[in-house]
């Protein structure tokens, strides 16, 4: 058995963030890509509809646009290997960011689903777009929740 950084027992291994090309080769990296794709779909689908309560649509749009932009910034930062300089702080920031995103997306998803169920929007020409937005909002929420779990698992190895 070797000692040092190449310890074959795996005890010295610390799972890291999906940096660089790992964004496309690891599940936790693909979750970020999924958050971007599904978040953009929520944004575009909601932008193309008209809900009876404008403040609800405003909240959903705020959450979708804000977290699309922030996740895109996160994606670029991870792609450029910036977190290598202080990996432990970035791991904690990743957990906090994804936790906030999960909570806010969950609130927007439930709000949108409740609005769709409460108001008889089935006669509305935008009904299909709203249903698709609800589905993608919950899918995005799931992706952020899974990112939180991966982040916590990374932190347990310290």
UniProtKB/TrEMBL annotation:
Supply one GO BP term.
myelination
Q: Which GO terms describe its cellular component?
A: membrane
Q: Which GO terms describe its molecular function?
A: structural constituent of myelin sheath
- Localization in the cell: Membrane
Name the predominant localization: membrane
Q: Where is the MARVEL domain?
A: 23-156
| Membrane-spanning intervals of the chain | 27-45, 57-79, 100-121, 127-152
How does it sit in the bilayer? Answer: Multi-pass membrane protein
Identify the keywords attached in UniProt to this record, alphabetized: Membrane, Transmembrane, Transmembrane helix
Give a single Pfam family match.
MARVEL
Protein name (Swiss-Prot/TrEMBL): Protein MAL2-like
Native species: Petromyzon marinus
